[in-house]
Amino acid sequence: MKTKTFFSIKILTIFSFIFLLNSCTDLNEVVLDEKSGNAVSDPAGSLAAAYDRLGDGTFTDHGAIFAMQEYTTDEAILPTRGSDWGDGGKWRDMHEFTWSSTNAIIVSNWDLLNNGITRSLTAIKSAQEGTFSEKTLFLAESKALLAYYTYTTLDLYGQAPYRDPLNVTAPLQILKADTQIDQLIKDVEALIPDLADSGTQRTHHGRFTKQAAYAFLANMYLNRAVFKDRFNASSAFNFNEPAVAGSTGTDMDRVIYYTSLLIDSGKYSLESDFFKNFARTNENGTELIFAISQKIDYIRNGSNSFAYVSMERNQRTSAANRGTNAACTTPEFYASWDGNHDDPRFEQHYQYPDGTWFMNDGTDVSVPATDIVPKSSPALPWFHFNRGIQAGLQYGPILLPSGSLEMTGNRIKVSPLVMEKSTTTRMNFTPSLTFADPTKSVFAQNEINQGARVFKYEFDPEGGNGNSNVDMPLFRLGGVYAMRAEAYFRKGSAGLAMIDLNKLRTSRKRESLFGNAPGKALTTLDSDQLYKELGFELYWELQRRPESIRFGKFDLPGTAKAATQPFRRAFPIPQTVIDQKVFKQNQGYN
């Protein structure tokens, strides 16, 4: 059973639940527009609202932070598919690097992150001015969330707003990435004594604990050199400069220090089934360090976006569910797996309780109808698609005009699938993308089948297409090993880096269809292979853009993308914000 309550019933009053349901701070009430800290005086409600901004779209919807961190890279692209997904070009802008300061994705994400900053400032003020037993803990968590929202804003936009939450007349401050990164690191390090150990003080992976702080600090140190010299034309970032004042060693030494605290803590272990990290039952996942807790209930219904966005409209987990035929991966990322299709992280077949495997290769006749969509009434048979990266001809159930899945006896019939909006086009997820104009990611209606799809996150059919019980990882143990491997490599210790990468590879096991075979170990390692390995472990987890900048890949040409200038490593400040004459526009966008 999932437990999603942030705080004890004694502290989290009915008012707090109402507060959470009604999104305490209106999206328009951003730091630029309002004095923060005057919305609510209840500390539990204020902190719950600050956490709520992590979900409710921001880090869980493909059109939010995901669009900026993934659609701008080789891991993901959302092309215009015939009559679908034009939307004024906002999706294509992300991958074609043609965005401007008026792009709707850039504007909406600025608002979301600023709202997270405002909610965190409100939570800080509420905790600071209150008198209650968990004051120190709530204050530390509020400040940690403020640092997380601020860091993400600086990562994407290079600038972020701040206003002292305890001084209603305080002037607005404009923080800059190159100068603020050191202060953010110091601020989070100072919070560690006041944060709870995960599992104590009613905490879990949905709250900001000491362990979440360790992972966050490792991530900040890993990217510190980029923040300080983002527009370096040669991408020659100094990853081994001395750590912030008061800390020993270099940036990479600090990455190794914080990641080792997590790896050696005994609190976490790698899942042998890689895809359990992204399953609807992952609430007790052994890798999750800091995650967005999702639950389909009357308080909050989670987001199915990362699963829904790749699945085709005629791919149905039940008679009441379907995909939306939007995003896919690129030929470059698919090709990076060459020679590694037997890696347990690449693909996984589903086995039903009676032993039936869904092969998705044309040999399937039917699967059991004994799995039922939770809480469905009348009971709906649940069809399970395979996980991982799916390419080639696709098979599955067909929805009849009656509104039911086609059956054969008491089993779900498996048939060849066609595209819903191009019914003469076979559903064939081709790894290649054949745009008529190679510079523009636009498909004709009979080409909308193209693109290998990412089924990493389990599609949860319980609450409709949009809802999910999958807890969304922000930091997990696999990513911690990947950070440490990169830090070792950048220090010149390729052997130690390879040990960590091989831990990731060989700890994962294939399904019993393939004898539970472990992944194969690397025997050599260079920078290009390391970059591939980060992709194998962390694809579609909002890490690729920072990775590609660190490795000098972000500016390079690719599918539907020309070579670009370094100024694109940061997004523009929205024009609506510039018009207020408080922020100055980032270089290159004037």
TrEMBL record:
The keyword Cell wall biogenesis/degradation does not apply. It is found in: Cell outer membrane. Residues 287-570 form the RagB/SusD domain. Residues 97-222 form the SusD-like N-terminal domain. The keyword Signal applies. It comes from the Bacteria. Its main location: membrane. Keywords: Cell outer membrane, Membrane, Signal. One of its GO terms (cellular component) is cell outer membrane. Pfam families: SusD-like_3 (PF14322), SusD_RagB (PF07980). InterPro entries: SusD-like_N (IPR033985), SusD_RagB_dom (IPR012944), TPR-like_helical_dom_sf (IPR011990). Belongs to the SusD family. This is RagB/SusD family nutrient uptake outer membrane protein. The lineage of its organism: Bacteria, Pseudomonadati, Bacteroidota, Flavobacteriia, Flavobacteriales.
